[in-house]
């Protein structure tokens, strides 16, 4: 029984043709994919790593949702108390990164009020994302 191969390139030269067999190429590619899947570490879960950093006070997340409610590390907080809460976190870790997650339709006035309070609290590392 013979295996039919697909010709991807063929050139006629004086009555003969050159064929390239794809079967070995596909075999090698699939073998490499299987080796990479097996050798991939099982504990490389981004969310568990991120959760561990948050519980050890190595990262601070601020969420401003579409209803203009503010959450610091999943705890709802009043806009006037942001400064106090962040100063406590910065006191524990002076170089703590602060991630601000902002809803797409948020009012810019509120965003800049919160951003100025974060700067006034002494934050040095700030990142922004749209939710």
From TrEMBL:
A Gene Ontology biological process term: protein transport
Protein's membrane topology: Single-pass membrane protein; Single-pass type II membrane protein
Keywords linked to the UniProt accession: Cell membrane, Membrane, Protein transport, Transmembrane, Transmembrane helix, Transport
CC terms in the record's Gene Ontology section: plasma membrane
Transmembrane parts of this sequence: 20-40
Single GO molecular function: transmembrane transporter activity
Similarity field: Belongs to the ExbD/TolR family.
Official protein name in the record: Biopolymer transport protein
Location(s) in or outside the cell: Cell membrane
Pfam families: ExbD (PF02472)
Organism domain of life: Bacteria
